[in-house]
């Protein structure tokens, strides 16, 4: 039997995306194991979720270190010792330095609450409401040195409805983040999706546009199967 595919999860807060991963593994929808959960916030509920699932949980608080680099070296030193095949940033709210990103290129993905390249950075739901867009959503992308700028693997869309405020829109997007992350991880774990020299590869072929999650939670190539 091949060794289980190992995922390290970085999370700063609530950890609902982490929980979606754990639940998918428990119910046999994701053939992987979470090798560890790592945080910049010792009080992050995500760490509690890890401990409840008997998964190693580690936190390093930036203020306990002399520099951003020193903090990152400590945190990612622990990540490396967990020997993950993939690092998943699931609500990890700190910028990751270029040297660390470089070291994990092609092996680190992030879930971001917008349809990238729209609305990078923070307060994405506020940005979407202020821009007056009709559609919003979430993306899973490879992490590169450019903030929220790496190649996008997959996206899920939601409508922006009349009367939406930030919490309402955030909740609608979050409801799609969980199935999007699990469906995308299934492709990464099976190594059907990889990062090639000029972008995302699916089954060895360049992906012209991000995969899109349908209402049944299945990812499609929008270039082959338009809506
Ligand atoms: C999610 O909405 C995720 O997309 C977002 O933080 C939330 C974490 O929720 N990530 C970012 O904004 C990264 N820039 P969770 O802790 O319940 O998974």
From TrEMBL:
Residues 6-184 form the Formyl transferase N-terminal domain. The active site is at residue 112. One of its GO terms (molecular function) is phosphoribosylglycinamide formyltransferase activity. It comes from Lysobacter defluvii IMMIB APB-9 = DSM 18482. Pfam families: Formyl_trans_N. Pathway: Purine metabolism; IMP biosynthesis via de novo pathway; N(2)-formyl-N(1)-(5-phospho-D-ribosyl)glycinamide from N(1)-(5-phospho-D-ribosyl)glycinamide (10-formyl THF route): step 1/1. It catalyses: N(1)-(5-phospho-beta-D-ribosyl)glycinamide + (6R)-10-formyltetrahydrofolate = N(2)-formyl-N(1)-(5-phospho-beta-D-ribosyl)glycinamide + (6S)-5,6,7,8-tetrahydrofolate + H(+). The gene is purN. The record marks 148 as: Raises pKa of active site His. CDD domains: FMT_core_GART. InterPro entries: Formyl_transf_N, Formyl_transf_N_sf, GART, GART_AS. Coiled coil: none annotated. N(1)-(5-phospho-beta-D-ribosyl)glycinamide binds at residues 15-17. (6R)-10-formyltetrahydrofolate binds at residues 68, 93-96, 110. Its EC number is 2.1.2.2. This is Phosphoribosylglycinamide formyltransferase. It comes from the Bacteria.
